[in-house]
Every structure is written in C-alpha cells, then in structure tokens.
Amino acid sequence: MNNNNETSKKELNHDIIAVIIIIIAVASVVLLIVKNLPKDQETPLSENQTYQEKLAASDDDCSAFILEHFDEYPEQLISDYFLNKDLYRDFMLEYPEHKNDYQDMTFTAEELSGGAPILLQTDSRWAFENFYGEYIIWNGCMPTTLTMAYIGFTGKADLDPKIITEMFIENGFGGISGFNIDCVKWFCDRYGFSCTEYDYRDDKAFIMPEKELVINALEKGHYFVVSCRVGVFTSSGHAVLLSGYDKATDTFRVNDPNSLERSQKSWSYEELAPELETIWEIGLD
Q1: Rounded to whole angstroms, how far apart are CA atoms 203 and 143?
Q2: Alpha-carbon dihedral of residues 220, 272, 182, 136, nearest 10 degrees?
C-alpha cells in the first residue's frame, strides 16, 4: 500500500513539473512576441481612460494639438477621431479656427452673378456644420450641388449648403451617410424648378446618356443634377452639377463640390457619360 502511495506522489510531481514547463514555455513565447512588436505601434488604450488621457498617450502632433484645444471640440468629434485618425486629421487641425465660420457666412458678388458658381463642400463657410453626427465636408455633396443650381438660376443668397441640409433633415430626406435622392424632385417642386429624371442604371450593361439630349438642355439654360456611379468622381456615391456645354470645343462643364480641379476641367462626352448613373434635368422656365 505504501508503494502505491509513493507511485501516486511521483506521478503527481511529474504532472506538476509538466504544467510548470508548459507555463514557462507559453510565457516565453508571449514575451518574445511583445519584444518583437514594431516600436511605433501604439499601446492599446484602456476603455476607462478619459479622452484627455488617450490623447496624451498618443504619440502624434494632431493628438497633441487636440489636447491643447480640448475644450473647443465636441466629445463625439473626439470619439470619431480615435476611430479614424487619418480621415479626421486635417479636419481636427482646422476645426478650432473655422468651427464658427458659418456665423458670418456670405457669398461673394462674383458667386452671385456668373451662373452656377463653383462651391465646394470643403469650404470652411459651411464645411464644419454638423448633421446626424456627420459634417458637410464629407456628406454634403447634394446640398452643395443644389446650392450651386439655385444661385445659378436666381442669383439669390438666401440658400446655402447648411440651410438646404437642415431643410432635407426636417422633411425626412436625411440619413447617416447622405441624403435620399428623392430630395431633388422635392427641392425643385418647392422652388418652382422643372425637373425631369433620367435613370441610366442597369444590372446587365451600362446605358449611355443621350448626348444630344444633354446638349439641348444645357443650351436652353438648364442644369443637370447628377448622381455619379463609382468611377472618376467617387468611390462610393457622389452628386455633381452638370452646368454647361462649350460648342466650340464640344466639351462639358461639371461643378464638382468635392474637387476644384475637376470643376475647372473641360469634359468630353466620352469621359463624362460613363460616370452618370441618374441625372435630373432642372430648369427655371
């Protein structure tokens, strides 16, 4: 009986030693992984840290700037920054200086007197205005596009991207990633513009817009509000204004609220047509 006890003790000792060896091996592997992590990898941040502590622990100039101006940022905006630092970096650096630009926003005389002006959703006059936790700088292409059309037709300064954004939200066209395209017809009805929709979406093959239809409408002084397919103008969804046609060069003018470069370019029909998914011909007849 004593022999059995001795055997049991030996087996138990062997099991304990085996467990200890395994623990040491696992710890060694973990230590080796940690040691070989990239030196610039940010240490994971605890959920119970305050935003100020998170900013202080972040080793980059933008986080330091935000910390210095901490009281000037909404809490939600700082939270969004930590979700995508690359996207928000420039916006966060400009926010303290420009967050109140809309309070004394005006249009220039040139913008009000030369047809549809080129207006950018990145313009600080309205870019930092918030809706649904989003900002016009990223999701304000449709309100900015319709502002250009409205000014082009009327020469009036009583609408701007922020006002139109609020109007759409109040009437059920707003969402977390932009606006329902039904807002175009609604907007035209509200302000007495004619509106005809042409849809070039097709699951099987791309349908080309009719070149003569587009030219004839533009030569009458109409515009086209355009919902773009993924391509040159957008990687997801985007609205632009097709605002003119130059007969001498057989090219079209596009007011792109997200690009001054594309707005200043002359577009051939072959370049432009494949980008058009849905277009609304609008006019003040």
Answers
A1: 28
A2: -110
Whether the CB-CB separation of 73 and 63 falls below 8 Å is answered with no
168 within 8 A of 176, measured Cβ to Cβ: no
Q: Tell me the pLDDT tens digit for each residue of 228-273.
A: 998 999 988 899 999 999 999 999 999 999 999 999 999 999 999 9
Alpha carbons within 13 angstroms on the beta-carbon side of residue 145 total 32
Residue type, position 165, single letter: T
Residues 194, 285: contact at Cβ < 8 Å?
A: yes
Distance of alpha carbon 213 from alpha carbon 229, whole angstroms: 20
Pairwise CA distance, residues 119 & 259, whole Å: 9
Partners of 240 in beta bridges: 226
**Could you give the CA distance from residue 261 to residue 257 in angstroms, rounded to a whole number?**
10
Q: Give the pLDDT mean for 216-238.
A: 94
What single string gives the DSSP state of each residue in 94-152? HHHHHTTGGGG----TTTTTSSS----TT-TTTTT-EETTEEHHHH-HHHHHHHHHHHH
